[in-house]
Design a protein that fits this description.
Layout (H helix, E strand, L loop, with lengths): L10 H10 L1 E6 L6 E4 L2 E4 L6 E5 L2 E8 L14 E7 L4 E7 L4 E3 L6 H9 L1 H4 L4 E2 L5 H8 L4 H7 L6 E2 L4 E3 L6 H5 L11 H7 L3 E3 L21 H9 L2 H11 L6 H14 L4 H15 L2 H6 L1 H17 L4 H4 L6 H13 L6 H18 L25
Parallel strand pairs: 1-7, 4-9
Antiparallel strand pairs: 1-4, 2-3, 2-5, 5-6, 6-10, 7-8, 11-12
Helix pairs in contact: 10-11, 10-13, 11-15, 13-16
């Protein structure tokens, strides 16, 4: 594990982090394991026993178990967790080879933690320094994400997993239960038949990310056809529903959720995080009335997106976003609505600067005419209902 991050650090900063920084002691980690904290990851060597000089605050650690070269050297799925660290904190974890995961129960043992703290000087050569040169990047990606929001969004298990942990919906404990299931030893006539024979699966309890639920319908119950059309063009009703049900006291925490989803995807390889990020972004960028009401929320959104889009790999848009041109079309709607007469002047100017920045950085054309793709709004005859 590289130790160069402290070489170019300001001496005063280094001394302060040495005195006030948190320490993560990780014992028994197999050589070759991929381990990361925040924006940097490594393959650990035989001497690795943790990270020192960690700035207090919220952090995300991630890790992948790796088979030894004699067994193929395959890398396992990534697991991550958010940690909130205080000054001079010491967290102690042991690697569980059976679960291929960290066991933090030792942190609850005050006697064990005191023993390790007393021997920190001996452990120091085996502790890698926090990559402080990337601290500013990490803060820019999580400045709206509080410890409380992260705790409420992460799974009850505390682990953010790249692949869902699924189990059968029905436990076949008895021979009779298994006998009643479709037989798999007979040839399937169609793909659908084959899929129907597979056991129905569900995500293991406590492993689900607890994102805000976005309403399936963007309009209120009993809405008229005209109201349905309006709510589909202006997603304010759906956005306000999410805010009222999840972030009523602190609407700006929705930006923290946007950052949480982005970190889960970018650092944790969780595709569900990317999908939720897209859904939240769609709500925010296509809610014209809300844009006029929640000035601070939208000023914050521009700042969040500025840093997020600055960290995405260059080929990201080619591989994922450009498949349906999601980002450019969504932001085009945002910039169009942000230029409206009812929008705060400061927000309008900030949006114009952001639009110019993205146009220059990515060569995106936000002024292309999309009228031919716009939904057609019609007035239905009185008494006509949508069944």
């Amino acid at each position: 594990m590289a130790r160069s991050s402290s070489v170019d650090m300001d001496p005063d900063v280094a001394r302060r982090l040495f005195e006030e920084g948190a320490t993560l002691v990780l014992l028994g980690v197999p050589q070759g394991t991929e381990f990361g904290i925040d924006c940097k990851s490594w393959k650990v060597g035989p001497r690795f026993q943790g990270i020192k000089m960690i700035p207090p605050g919220l952090h995300f650690i991630s890790y992948c178990s790796v088979n030894p070269p004699s067994c193929g050297g395959e890398v396992g799925p990534k697991t991550g967790l958010f940690l909130s660290l205080k000054p001079r904190d010491l967290l102690l974890a042991n690697w569980n080879p059976k679960e291929e995961d960290f066991d933090f129960s030792a942190t609850q043992n005050e006697e064990e933690v005191s023993r390790v703290r007393a021997n920190l000087q001996d452990l120091d050569p085996y502790l890698g320094p926090y990559p402080y040169e990337l601290m500013r990047k990490w803060v820019s990606l999580t400045d709206r994400l509080s410890e409380e929001v992260a705790k409420n969004l992460q799974p009850l298990s505390g682990r953010v997993c790249a692949f869902s942990d699924v189990i059968p919906e029905t436990e076949f404990r008895h021979t009779k239960d298994r006998a009643e299931q479709p037989r798999n030893d007979m040839a399937c006539q169609t793909m659908r038949e084959g899929l129907d024979r597979l056991p129905k699966m569900k995500q293991r309890e406590g492993t689900q990310l607890r994102f805000s639920v976005i309403p399936e319908k963007a309009y209120p119950a009993g809405a008229t056809p005209a109201q349905i059309t309006q709510c589909s063009l202006d997603l304010t009703y759906a956005l306000e529903t999410v805010l009222n049900e999840n972030h009523q006291e602190r609407p700006l925490d929705l930006l923290g959720e946007l950052q949480f989803a982005f970190v889960c995807f970018l650092m944790g390889n969780v595709y569900e995080g990317f999908e939720h990020w897209k859904r939240l972004l769609t709500l925010l960028c296509r809610a014209e009335t809300a844009m006029q009401k929640h000035k601070e929320l939208y000023l914050g959104l521009i700042a969040v997106l500025y840093h997020q889009l600055g960290e995405i790999p260059p080929d990201f848009f080619v591989d994922i976003v450009s498949q349906d041109n999601f980002l450019t079309s969504t932001l085009q709607d945002f910039f169009q609505m942000a230029s409206g007469p009812g929008v705060d002047v400061a927000l309008r100017k900030r949006a114009e600067k952001f639009k110019a920045h993205l146009t220059k950085k990515f060569s995106w054309d936000f002024d292309a005419d999309l009228d031919e793709y716009s939904p057609v709004v019609v007035d239905l005859p009185e008494g006509f209902t949508v069944g």
